[in-house]
Amino acid sequence: MSPTSSPEERGRLDIHPTVLRKIVEHAADGTPGTLLHERRLAGVGVGRAGSSARISDGPDGAVDVALELTLQYPAPVRRTVEAVRTRVGEELSRMTGRHIRNLAVTVSGLRGPDDGTAGSGSRVQ
Questions:
Q1: Span 49-70, average pLDDT
Q2: What domain count does the chain have?
Q3: pTM (predicted TM-score)
Q4: Is residue 19 classed as helix, strand or coil in its secondary structure?
C-alpha cells in the first residue's frame, strides 16, 4: 500500500462511544459558566463532577448527544448553553471528524458562585 492510497484502501478508524462521551463532557466542562455539582451515592457525598453525556451513533458518522450540566447563577442561561453547543460541536469535529446531528441540553442545576463550585469551566481534579 502506498502513502498516496485512497482513504478507502488504507482502512478505517472506529472511535468508541466512550471516547466521544469524554470529549463532549470535557468540552462542556471547559465552557465558561458551567459548574461542578456534588455527586452522591446512596445519599452520601462522594465528591464533585462535571457534565454528564450520553452518545448515540447516527447516520453518516453523525452523533446524537444528550448532555446534562450545572450552570452558574445568575447568568444568561441561553447564552451559556449556546456557548456549550458551539464548543462541543467544534471540539468533537476537530478531534474526531464527527459532527453532531442532535444535541439535547438539560440544565440540571443553577448554582451561585459562593457555594464553592464556581469557576469558569471548572473541572474535577
A1: 90
A2: 1
A3: 0.77
A4: helix
